[in-house]
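Anyone? Bumping this.
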Amino acid sequence: MRVFLFICVLGWSSFSAASVKITINDTVFDYEGNPKLSEVLEPIALERSWYWQSSALFRVGDSTIDKERSFIIEELLALTSSLDDVKVIRQLVASLESWNLARRLAIPIDFDLARVQPKFNPKFEDGEYLLLLKERVETVSIIGLVNESTVIEYKGNVAAMEYLSDIKATDLSDKSLIYIVQGNGEVKKSGVAYWNNSYDHVMAGSQIYIPFTESQFSKKMDILNMKIAKLATNRIIK
Amino acid sequence: MVLVGCSSTHRAYLETIKLAFQTSADPVLTLSEIQNSAIDLLYVSLKDKPRAVLALAYIENSQYKWVSGDNAMLVEQGGRIVKTVGTIDNFFYVTNIENDPLAIPKNVNSTLYWNRSVDYDNGLSAFVESKFEWVINSELIIDGNHAKANMLKEVVTFHQVNKQTNTWINYFWFDTETEQLLKSEQQLTPNSDRYELTYISRIARLPLATVLSVGD
C-alpha cells in the first residue's frame, strides 16, 4: 500500500519538458527528464555507508503538512481549558511549531532495493524534492510530554521501556505507553509498563513520543497522540 | 603434460558440482555452463527450500551483491552476509564491519574477538560477539561429496533484548591452496534458518592441472 501511494504521488510522467529538482542532503540536482530513484541515488549511493532505513524522501512545497500541524496545535490549545498543566501544553505547541516539516513520501530509500525490485524504483514526477541520506547515529530523540525535548544515547538491543529512566516525563504523560517513530517512518504504539510491556525495539536514530494519558472510555487522546506521532515522521532532521 | 598438485580436494569440488546438478528439486546447471558463465554464480540453500542460484550483480565497496531470479539480493563482505533484500528475515546494517576478521582470514586466530551491532527490518538491533577457531584440513561436504579444506569456525553469541543470549556456530571453508572461500554456513538470528553458500564459479575455476592430477 505504501508503495502504491507513493507511485500515485510520483506518477509516471510522459512529458518531455520535465522538471525535477532534488536536493540530496545539501547538494541540488536538476533533471531534465523524470529520473528513477536508482538513477538519483547512483552518484552518491556508494560515497558512504548510508543507513538506508533512516534515509527519507520529502516532497517540497506540499502545504498540507503545515495545515496538519496547525490543526494539531489548535487541538492542543483547546486542551488548555480542560487540563491543569497549561505550561506543558504550551511547551509542546512551541516544540511542534519549531519542527522543520515537509511531506515524507512513503517509499523505502535503498539503492540496492531500488535496483533489484522495480516496484521500489519509481520515477519522479515533476516537482521539487528533498532526499536525506543518513548515516547510522547512536542517538534517539525524545519528544512530546517531557520537560524538554532532548536527544539521548541509543541503547541498542534493549526494549523501549529501558529509555524511560532517561526521560523526565510530565504529569500529563501516559506512564504505560510510548509511541516509537522509527527512522523508516513507521509509528508504533508500545506498552512500556510491567503489565503491558511489548518489548518493542527502537531503531537507531528514531524518535520516542511521550504521549498524553489515554483512556479506556474515550479515544480522543489516542487519536491526538497518533496525529502528533505521525506528524513527527515528516520532520526534516539532518 | 606435467600435472602437479596433490589435491583430491579440487576434484571433489568439481565432482560436487556435477552431482549437485543432478539433484531433483534444485536448479541443475552443468559444469561447463558454470565455467562459461560470464557472471559468477552462487548456490544458496536454506532449510527445506529448493537451492537458489544467485548471480553476482555488483561488486561495490568491497561488497559482493548477489541477485536471485526473484529479485532478492544477498550482500556479503569478506564472505559474511551483511545485508539481505527481499527475503523473510531481512537485516540491513552491520556496524564495525571494517574490523571483521573475515576480511583477512589468514590473520585470524583464536585470540581474536569481534563485536558488532546488527540491525533488522523489524527494529531489532542485536549486539553480537564472535570468536574464531581454525580447523586445518577439515572435511568439506557438499551434497554428500567429501573434500579437504581449511575451516574457520565462528562461535557467535547473540544478546537478546531480554538479556538472554543465544550461541551458534558459523562455518567458513577455504581452499587449502588458493585460500579462496568456497563455502559457508551462516545463521543470521537465533531462530532463523541457516544459509548455506557455495561459490560454484570459484570452485569451477580452480586450477585445472591440479584437478586433473587426482588419481594419477
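Late reply, but here is one note on the structure posted above: The CA atoms of residues 102 and 117 of chain B lie 16 Å apart.
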